[in-house]
Design a protein that fits this description.
Distance between the termini: 33 Å
Strand content: under 5%
Number of strands: 0
Number of helices: 15
């Protein structure tokens, strides 16, 4: 389910923590890595279930208004556009999501005020107001609306992340990645699949699972050797002033370059440069690019690797 980039980020995080903790085995760190990945998959389900909580809130709100002593015409004949959204109805009946919810419980049961606050923001948004004016019956339009609602209205709600941080320390830096996976799921739904529509698995396939496991193991097992390489090609830098995260990023990058023959060098370099831009300092991307470029040229010249991606 997680993209290769997020899998790389998780290995970087685990390698960083492994070296900081000291007396921790590679197996313990690997176990924590897979636990972290499972927590990301949990967050993925939590976002899908959040959408259903908003649907349920809207339905309950409609019913309560009908029960007023003096209901208005609008109370008695409410706009059902949102609660009858074709994608939301399909999601509410999704067998995989309902099985997950039955096994793990409703993650939002203790946060009614958050659901109310998010619904109020949704209800007042221009996107929602315009959608409620449209006619029903267009499944693709309903999907696009929910995807955009999640990205543009729900995701920016800051208090949501306080709840996520309280639930898991692993979720601080990856919400954007997970939201992108939820949006991908929404856009990938097909009306013909009805309640049988598949959700994203924890790993896309066995190859991705093997990738993250081997990357973690090789990074930790070859830490000393890879640090020697980094030191060799940073002689013109004040090594003590290099950000520690940059050193870890380069260790993981070297492990990937050496271990995975099928991944072109330039692909690996670009991935870790982008990760550095997001997670480290403003100058990290340029620095890491320069060092890794020299190291990869050295590995090729010494015939320590043989793979595509460099002239």
């Amino acid at each position: 389910m997680l993209s290769r980039r997020l899998l790389r980020v998780k290995v970087v995080q685990m390698a960083y923590a492994h070296h900081q903790k000291g007396e921790v085995s590679i197996q313990q760190t690997e176990n924590e890595l897979f636990h972290s990945i499972s927590k990301s998959h949990e967050m993925y389900h939590d976002f899908l279930l959040l959408l259903l909580e908003l649907k349920n809130f809207a339905e309950n709100r409609i019913e309560l208004r009908k029960q007023k002593k003096r209901p208005s015409e609008e109370d008695l004949n409410p706009n059902m556009r949102f609660v009858e959204n074709a994608f939301m109805v399909q999601l509410a009946n999704n067998e995989t999501l309902m099985a997950y919810n039955s096994k793990n419980g409703t993650p939002w049961v203790d946060h009614p005020e958050t659901i109310k606050a998010i619904f109020n923001i949704v209800n007042e948004s221009e996107l929602f107001i315009e959608y409620m004016k449209t006619e029903g019956g267009d499944y693709e339009a309903d999907k696009r609306f929910i995807a955009k609602l999640l990205e543009k209205v729900i995701a920016p709600y800051a208090n949501l992340y306080t709840i996520f941080e309280e639930k898991s320390v692993y979720w601080n830096d990856e919400v954007e990645f997970v939201i992108s996976m939820v949006v991908k799921t929404i856009k990938g739904f097909s009306q013909e699949n009805e309640e049988k529509e598949a959700l994203l698995p924890e790993f896309k396939d066995d190859e991705d699972r093997d990738f993250v496991q081997r990357l973690c193991r090789k990074t930790l097992a070859n830490q000393s050797e890879n640090m020697e390489l980094i030191q060799k090609f940073t002689k013109n830098w004040d090594f003590d002033r290099v950000a520690y995260l940059d050193l870890v990023l380069m260790q993981v990058a070297i492990a990937e370059i050496r271990e995975f023959k099928q991944i072109p060098i330039n692909v690996s370099l670009n991935e870790y440069i982008e990760i550095a831009k997001f997670y480290s300092t403003s100058k990290s991307g340029v620095f890491i690019n320069g060092v890794l470029d020299k190291i990869s040229e050295h590995l090729l010249a010494e015939k320590l690797i043989n793979k595509p991606g460099k002239a």
